[in-house]
Amino acid sequence: MIATGAASMGRAATPAPGAQSSRLPRAVSRLRLVLRSSEAAARSGGERWMGCFRPATAPATAAAAVKEAKKGKQPEVEVEVEPARGGGEDVWSAGADAEVAQGGAFPEHLVIMVNGLVGSADDWKFAAEQFVRRMPDKVIVHRSKCNSATQTFDGVDLMGERLANEVLSVVEQRRGVKKISFVAHSLGGLVARYAIGRLYEPNSRSKSSGGRDDVEHLEGHIAGLEPMNFITFASPHLGSSGNKQLPFLCGLPFLERRASETAHLIVGRTGKHLFLTDNDDGRRPLLLRMVDDSGDLQFRSALRSFKRRVAYANANFDHMVGWRTSSIRRQHELPKHRLLVRDEKYPHIVYVEKEVTDNNGTEAHADLYDPEEEMIRGLTQVPWERVDVSFQKSSQRLVAHNTIQVKSYWLNSDGADVINHMMDNFIV
Q1: What's the longest Cα–Cα distance across the chain?
Q2: Is residue 105 within 8 Å of residue 95, measured between CB atoms?
Q3: Radius of gyration of the chain measured on its C-alpha atoms
Q4: Which residue in 93, 100, 354, 386 has the fewest CB atoms around it within 10 Å?
């Protein structure tokens, strides 16, 4: 019986040759159909998954196109990016090349964008593209690349020298530019201040009438170009050594002292510069020297040569740079929270202070030297605009230091209105 059962099982399991040959093509066809269905599902699923992280550009672009059409504006322009000969990346409108080919002029305004500590040229990707789309025939944007990642530990002076050399290379390559502006984030603001001190060229022409307009017109040039805007975002202009200037330390004196003593072990010479503990060759700390003209480095004259100087500052939730140091103010000069208002057009701009010059300053106690007070007095010898920003009601408030510049659109898109505010007030 067992043998008979085994034989019957063997006969059942072994199909006839004709049946096997007829079923094989159908099985292969079914397999191919299943594979194609699986691939299609994977693609659609992957696209849906990536869509969770990708900004919703299509609806926004459509809405923007409708608004622009109502205003009679041109549709969004194509942006081109090209590596610059001296490093970094140049961003401009693709239409500018076509205009030049037809005998038109290339954009005359060069905008230099500078990243902060452990940053890169990509940090300004969003803002650079917005610049070019808003002003396609007027600006060419250069995203600096000479101070990236751990290169930002080398110190403000070395970084400033590298930036100055990079700017000279860009100007040499783009012979058509006539104006220059700087837009810098965080530590990049100090680096840009150093670089313009190196690049400053006094105007050799004599003043004709001695009037205010003539003085401003004859202030000088930066890298041979007319200085226009000098704009910083959350930059520690007064360093990080004062109370609550490095907010994540919670203002605790013990932690602030320890940070001052150990910063150089973490971020190299840059830490010494930020905490005013450097004394190269017995000289005063670099940030104290950078508030005035110093030898062949004309820091104050370079700042004065710009038509505008603007300091954007986070009023809260910036854990890296305090409100006082980024807005160049004394504690009692900070706007009271009851005065902070919201603008429908710029929901995160809460206070705007037009150009203010501090020629008198606050009298310091003769027996108490305050380096922060010295820096404020020096920097405010030229007028600054202050723009205070608050992401208090934003889900991105905990990364306010990066949101203010829209470092990554996926994570910091709420700062787009701050970038728009900068461009709406930009002198071209």
Answers
A1: 126
A2: no
A3: 29
A4: 354
